Amino acid sequence: MEPETFMTTQPAQPAAAQFGYTLALAERTLTHVLRDHLAERGTEPETWYALQLIAMRGPGIARESLSTELEGSRSLDAQSTRELLSRLEADGLIHGDSHLDLTAQGAALHAGLRDYIAIPRNRLLSQFDEEDIETTVRTLQAIAERALAG
Fold first, then answer.
1. Is the per-residue pLDDT at 109 higher than 80?
2. Is the omega angle on the peptide bond into residue 59 within 30 degrees of 0, that is, cis?
3. What is the pLDDT of residues 32-69, one digit of tens each?
4. Pick the CATH number of 43-149 from 3.40.30.10, 3.20.20.140, 3.40.50.300, 1.10.10.10
């Protein structure tokens, strides 16, 4: 008589049960790729993030609003955000008092980094159907908005 064979695989979980883990894995993996890619240009992700926020929300993004957004990231707090913005100002990449803008040098750096980052992003996303990407973006935006609303 042969011994019984038991299934060692877990039953399939509904998508909602896998959501948190899958999102965390994607975030961790993509952050690693972004860090490595930016390092090739000698740029810290925090610098890219600040320049990107100013470019997307500007011109004239409120310093307080930008600081709050940056402080909400994993790698920055109030003190490191102040240091980052001071460094970007000293490097001639941003200017302003209560409202911040990219300088011409900052805009050029941002544009160059944006184009450089587009290479691996486009290579990755070209493997997926455009409608799937659009649905994913809309869904993630809605989840974030609803989570913030409580």
1. yes
2. yes
3. 989 999 999 999 999 999 999 999 997 899 999 999 99
4. 1.10.10.10
pLDDT average, residue stretch 122-142: 94
Single pTM value for the model: 0.78
Angle subtended at Cα 87 by Cα 86 and Cα 91, rounded to the nearest 5 degrees:
120
Q: At 34, list the tokens.
A: 């972004």
Q: What is the 3-class SS of 66-120, one letter each residue?
A: HHHHHHCCCCCCHHHHHHHHHHHHHCCCEEECCEEEECHHHHHHHHHHHHHHHHH
Of the candidates 66, 144, 132, the one whose C-alpha atom is nearest the C-alpha of residue 100 is 66
